[in-house]
Design goal:
- By secondary structure, this protein is mainly beta.
- It has one domain.
- Helix content is 8%, strand content 40%.
- It has 1 helix and 8 strands; from the N terminus they run E-E-E-E-E-E-H-E-E.
- The strands form 2 sheets. Strands 1-6-5-4 form a 4-stranded mixed sheet, with no helix packed on it.
- A hairpin with a 5-residue loop joins strand 5 and strand 6.
């Protein structure tokens, strides 16, 4: 079952033109088979089996936590990088 990631445990960024999402306090067991579904209010990183993460995009004031160019970077590269606690990066292509 996907894990809910509270806003204080994740950050959205664009580095070198690529979309990155960093999670603090979370790890993964499988590094293959991930995908991303970016939406205006929620981002889903769907992993294999029961692994996955639900990340709210809006802060307590209803403002988008992702930088303005994050969606464009996801679209341009057809996915986003998920960076977990131990520093490992997993590329998650766009779902569908």
């Amino acid at each position: 079952m996907p894990s809910f990631v509270p806003p204080e445990s994740s950050t959205f960024a664009v580095e070198g033109g690529e979309a990155r999402t960093v999670l603090v306090g979370f790890s993964v067991t499988n590094h293959q088979g991930w995908s991303v579904v970016p939406r205006a209010t929620l981002v889903v990183f769907d992993g294999p089996d029961d692994e996955g993460f639900l990340l709210p995009r809006l802060d307590a004031n209803g403002l988008d936590r992702a930088p303005p160019d994050w969606d464009a970077a996801v679209e341009h590269h057809r996915g986003a990088w998920l960076v977990v606690d131990n520093g490992e990066s997993i590329f998650a292509p766009l779902a569908g």
